[in-house]
Design brief:
The chain is α/β, with parallel strands linked by helices. It has 18 helices and 26 strands. Among the domains are: about 200 residues, ANL, N-terminal domain (Rossmann fold, 3-Layer(aba) Sandwich); about 100 residues, ANL, C-terminal domain (GMP Synthetase, Chain A, domain 3).
Length: about 500
Amino acid sequence: MNPAEWLVRAARRTPGAPALLAGDRVVADYAAFARAAASIGAALRAKAIAPGDRVALFAGNCVEYLEAMYGIWFAGAAAVPINAKLHPRECAWIIENSEAKIVIASSDHAHELADVLPAGLDLIRIDSADFATMRETSPLAEPTPMADDAMLWLFYTSGTTGRPKGVMISSANILATALTYFVDVDDVSPSDAALYAAPMSHGAGLYNFMHVMRGARHVVPDSGGFEPQEILDLAKNLRNISMFAAPTMVRRLVERARAVGSDGDGIKTIVYGGGPMYLADIVEAVEVMGPRFVQIYGQGESPMCITALSRETISDRAQPRWRERLASVGLAQSCMRVKIAEADGSEAPRGTIGEVLAQGPAVMPGYWRNPQASVETLKGGWLWTGDMGAMDEDGYLTLHDRSKDVVISGGSNIYPREVEEALLAHADVAEVACVGRKHEDWGEELVAFVTPAPGAAIDPGALDAHCLDLIARFKRPKAYYIVEELPKNNYGKVLKTELRKRLEQS
């Protein structure tokens, strides 16, 4: 199934419906959106792009991003969306590894790339006359047919443990993710609007499919990214806004809403994921903004589609175990099977910690030209996620940490997230990240990087006493590093690899 067919259907059904918005300004209806994509597809064909070829996208959020992606699919090619915050040399490596034949980039990114790309590679500026000409090319009559196993999205992982791996996402993967969204995450109506405040090269971009299917609006903020007040203003004006947000983004949005006395009026749904959402933060989010939140858990290898925690569960305070459920990432999405495994792959007893395994039509077929990594990750018909978690008797999955983040001190496992949850309950703590530090006798010991709340001064002794009230003595941090801010990627995820580097350097 070619997703460009969903765009064509929406354009035929409601050609005059608003489709692409820059801020609150409509720049294309569905007829214009579909025609631009068909024209770009034709222009790519004229540039010798054949079905199965790769076309890279290196740009920040903009409405042209969607036109370019659907143009790539019209031609039957695979899109390679690249994180706009990457260094040009990192981007060039991805382009070379994917064997992309064309790169479509914004002007600032194109300028940076020009010196590091191979000679002769076609580099098209997304805001240039060349791209405008592509949009005016005589359009393809219809999208190129795609088989279920055709790769349509080649997503490169963050590469925190070495070179990034290319996750091959097939047509069938996208179809499973999209249809399951309607069942387990949220419904979409034509009056809704997808707001792209998180990078379109990542999970936020994947949520375009559901809104194209239903002929809903697609909104790119004028800032091109995440500005809390801008989002609150757009929601109030446009209404029925849905967006994907990392937990750190949710925290900032809630802080702003509280500061200006807003309850998020106009926001329909905030789907959060991509990192740990701490219990105290989501409790506050619901208190301030009401039942607008849904959590998903997924990976690039199973895009946005492993488990989901429903709006009703997140908002429920009558259920006796509501806190435990709110701290979880929910139940397996309808198209997926999820289990907790021992090291040998056997299923772990309910309530015990093991590695999270996932199986279903949303799971990738493998890594791009990396058979060894594919074999290591896809074993026995299951995706080995690398995440550690436990599942209760009702099927709710609670994540503890990435397997590589678990700290083993003197033979005892310490899960940093549990300690982080405890520290965040202290009034003086704004953010915290715990990692392992080498120890001569114990192998590792847990330490905490802490950012103070506004106007607060961190007292390590008080934090120690606080931890001893909540968790076992051996789990408490052995040192506290007070920092102004935690290092994060452009998706808002804390870079624990960077914190470990700081420890090594010191």
